[in-house]
Structure formats: C-alpha cells, structure tokens
Known about the structure:
Low-confidence stretches: none
Amino acid sequence: MVLSVGKTQIGKENFTDRNKHSLIALLQEIQEQYSYLPEDLLRELAGAKKLALIDIYSVATFYKSFSLKPRGRRKIVTCTGTACHVRGSEKVSQELSRILGIS
C-alpha cells in the first residue's frame, strides 16, 4: 500500500514502524521532495504512525535541516567563522541580501 499526498508516494509499511529513526528517514524523504515539510503531510504521517502530531513536530523542529516553511530552490550560505568575519563576510552577506532583495 502506498500513501500519496501531492507528489509524495511512500510505502505505507514504512509508516507503521514507531522507531524514531524511521520517522527521521520519512521526514528526510518528504523534505527532499517538497523542500519543506507541509503540515497536511505531517498530520497524515502522525496518523499513519499512530504518533501525536506534537511528536512529529518535536523531531522536525529539533533538526536544523528540516523546514516547516517553503524554501527557494537554491540555498546561499556565507561563512560566519572567525576568519571569514575578520575578512568581511558580514558585508558580503549584506550585499547579497541587498542584490537579491531578501533578508
């Protein structure tokens, strides 16, 4: 049996395992397909795994790699380490934000 929500299709047998590691793998698969974790899919996942929605959200918000809001297709990251800071990385970040019109 396959669970389909939008363009996501995941074998339902993967949903029945209450193991947190399988939950992380499922969240990664959803994140990869959507670039974020849609709420309706998290609700369906919670029901299928017989977990409270708050348990799904606690895992999704604990890991920085998961996003609950849609993201762009590209991710730009600037170095914030000490060596980069000394060489002016903050100015580079500000200029990128200005040029791209993002914050």
